[in-house]
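TASK: fixed-backbone design
INPUT:
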């Protein structure tokens, strides 16, 4: 029999909303191929598994591997110069209006080769992997033409071949209006974004469809045209909504049964009610809040009261969140947004899986994928508590140990 047992570990199973971390002291996990066959306390191990080979985890803590459910990991260049500008007082939206911001990265991405984009993305992916990430979402959106959007998405797919990591792609053609369509956002959506989407889907490069609903990007009507096409293609949607202002993006996303609405600092009570109805996950992105020195907080208590699941992600991107540390994202979610360490960890495991429409991971439970992170800590709260410290000891991806 090919089963193996991980033993001498505390489990934080995170599989039951009513049991918090769902801790199991002196726990054991039986791995069968790529999934978990059994988990629980050592003294309850079914006798059928008694003779399986064992790996002693030295009393460490085992959690589901982390899931970074919102990143823009593939891009050319960097925007350190804009960081300096913002520090001297120029607002993010103003830089975007001058042709910098997202469009600066569009220029750099268009002029990068696929191999150069992959090399840059691998460096960032390796930083996430080193902190326990085993599933990663990557958006397009720095191409804004068919050729470059497809190039970005191919790089995202190649990343999953180059490393032991699952990659979910989101087509984000509706991210910004490129210079050749300046002043003609409608023309961009109809003549460029939608055809690029069709081409990317035909090439098998798209798992979900995203957009940026904002004054500096696209209106609700424009986003809705993209969502209608997504529905026709049978693909799930998500949306950057209510990041800088309230355009009702979350409610629009909810009308299309969005997997998630992301950012949400300016989310209204109506938006929360709509998300509650549709079961849309609220993805909070403390790295962008921090980098942009935003002062408006996402309505965490109201989301809790409504029972809207909360996920946390790095939003790794060259402008508003040059963050490649999921552990720092956990810490920021607590310190900046007032999440508990349990809520933050759920936000990068179980609820992050849900934000990607994946129901086979994000928990430690029989039948789940054996994507696990083993940490040199005593309690799970330490993962969010420490700053700039990485206690990862081992990462299991589909049942195989590999850092
Ligand atoms: N919101 C964000 O925070 C990123 N995209 C978006 O729609 C920022 C992208 C960038 O500034 O490059
Ligand atoms: Fe983003």
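OUTPUT:
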């Amino acid at each position: 029999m090919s089963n193996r047992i991980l033993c001498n570990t505390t489990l934080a199973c995170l599989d039951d909303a009513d049991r918090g971390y769902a801790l199991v002291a002196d726990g054991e996990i039986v791995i069968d191929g790529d999934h978990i066959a059994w988990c629980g306390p050592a003294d309850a191990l079914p006798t059928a598994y008694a003779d399986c080979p064992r790996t002693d985890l030295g009393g460490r803590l085992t959690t589901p591997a982390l899931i970074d459910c919102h990143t823009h990991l593939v891009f050319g260049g960097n925007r350190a110069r804009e960081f300096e500008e913002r520090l001297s007082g120029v607002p993010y939206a103003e830089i975007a209006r001058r042709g910098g911001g997202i469009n600066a990265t569009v220029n750099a991405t268009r002029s990068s080769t696929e191999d150069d984009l992959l090399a840059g993305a691998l460096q960032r992916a390796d930083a996430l992997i080193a902190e326990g990430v085993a599933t990663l979402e990557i958006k397009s959106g720095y191409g804004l033409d068919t050729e470059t959007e497809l190039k970005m998405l191919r790089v995202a797919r190649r990343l999953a071949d180059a490393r032991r990591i699952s990659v979910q792609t989101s087509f984000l053609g509706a991210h910004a209006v490129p210079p050749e369509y300046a002043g003609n956002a409608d023309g961009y959506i109809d003549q460029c974004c939608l055809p690029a989407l069709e081409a990317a889907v035909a090439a098998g490069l798209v798992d979900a469809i995203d957009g940026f609903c904002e004054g500096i990007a696209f209106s609700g009507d424009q986003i809705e045209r993209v969502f209608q096409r997504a529905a026709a293609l049978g693909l799930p949607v998500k949306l950057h909504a209510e990041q800088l202002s309230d355009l009702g993006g979350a409610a629009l996303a909810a009308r299309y049964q969005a997997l998630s609405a992301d950012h949400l600092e300016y989310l209204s009570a109506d938006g929360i009610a709509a998300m509650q109805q549709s079961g849309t996950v609220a993805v909070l992105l403390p790295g962008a809040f921090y980098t942009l020195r935003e002062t408006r907080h996402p309505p965490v208590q109201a989301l809790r009261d409504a029972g809207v699941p909360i996920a946390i992600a790095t939003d790794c991107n060259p402008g508003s969140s040059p963050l490649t540390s999921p552990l720092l994202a956990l810490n920021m979610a607590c310190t900046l947004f007032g999440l508990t360490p349990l809520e933050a960890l759920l936000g990068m495991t179980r609820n992050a899986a849900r934000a990607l429409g994946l129901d086979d991971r994000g928990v430690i439970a029989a039948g789940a994928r054996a994507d696990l992170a083993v940490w040199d800590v005593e309690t799970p709260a330490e993962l969010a508590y420490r700053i700039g410290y990485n206690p990862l000891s081992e990462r299991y991806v589909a049942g195989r140990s590999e850092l």
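COMMENT: The chain has a mean pLDDT of 97.
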